[in-house]
Amino acid sequence: MALVEIKNLHKSFGSNHVLRGIDFSVEQGEVVCVIGPSGSGKSTLLRCVNLLEKPQQGQVFVRGEDITDPDCHLDAARQQIGMVFQQFNLFPHLSALANCTIAQRTVLKRSPAEADRVARANLERVGLSDKIDAFPAQLSGGQQQRVAIARALSMDPALMLFDEPTSALDPELVGDVLTVMRKLALEGMTMLVVTHEMAFAREVADRVAFMDGGVIVEQGPPADVIGDPREERTRTFLRRVLDPTHVEPT
């Protein structure tokens, strides 16, 4: 059974039909990177997986449970899913450690001592054991994003969603975040990653899905989708991304 299974997913914002019948799954331990142009529906797909956006039609199953069912205990289902956004969404008045303990205590009802232990372990996991008392304003963008990853990991998710986690970072800070994500992949974390980092997708993903116009145009191993795509739409996108100086013939 797939960890996540999406069936005939449709999502519209007014007259804008963003997702047009997505069928997609993610296996336990799999790293799937979703690529495609801006506006193709990538982030909306991710937000529908944990119902930050409610689809108009279709179903999302997590570990076999239909979380789109109105009778589903959504908060309990969401506890299985960690999400890291483009913007870090840290509480500015809380230290890195406190940012990683607050949800553990309020949602998982862990004791302060247990939440503290788990948070410290995950901050060490992302290379920030020396920044536990720092506030977000005292951290670089890359460090803030790594705190956000540690915060999500502290909830012991079965699945991690990453929505373009490096897009808001200065180029020299991107590497530290991608290094943490590579480490998680090696540890066997199931990850669904929306990214423009083609080198990362090629190296780390088990599967790459190319989206355009609200549909998955093609998917498969990175060597196929990035290295030798079948579809012209994929080839055109990759030419533009991999060679920004390339001009399409008119």
TrEMBL record:
Q: What is its main location?
A: membrane
Q: Which InterPro entries match?
A: AAA+_ATPase, ABC_ATPase_HisP-typ, ABC_transporter-like_ATP-bd, ABC_transporter-like_CS, MetN_ABC_transporter-like, P-loop_NTPase
Q: Which Gene3D superfamilies match?
A: P-loop containing nucleotide triphosphate hydrolases (3.40.50.300)
CDD domains assigned to the protein according to its UniProt record, in alphabetical order = ABC_HisP_GlnQ
Q: Which GO cellular component does the record give, naming just one?
A: plasma membrane
Q: Which domain of life is it from?
A: Bacteria
Q: GO MF annotations for this entry?
A: ATP binding; ATP hydrolysis activity; ATPase-coupled polar amino acid-transporter activity
Q: How does it sit in the bilayer? A: Peripheral membrane protein
The places in or outside the cell where this protein is found are: Cell membrane
Q: Which residues form the ABC transporter domain?
A: 4-238
EC assignment: the record states 7.4.2.1
Q: Does the keyword ATP-binding apply?
A: yes
For this protein, the record's SMART domains field holds: AAA
Q: Which keywords are on file for this protein?
A: Amino-acid transport, ATP-binding, Cell membrane, Membrane, Nucleotide-binding, Transport
Known catalytic reactions: a polar amino acid(out) + ATP + H2O = a polar amino acid(in) + ADP + phosphate + H(+)
Tell me its family.
Belongs to the ABC transporter superfamily.
The protein in question is named ABC-type polar-amino-acid transporter
Q: Which organism is it from?
A: Kribbella capetownensis
Q: What is the lineage of its organism?
A: Bacteria, Bacillati, Actinomycetota, Actinomycetes, Propionibacteriales
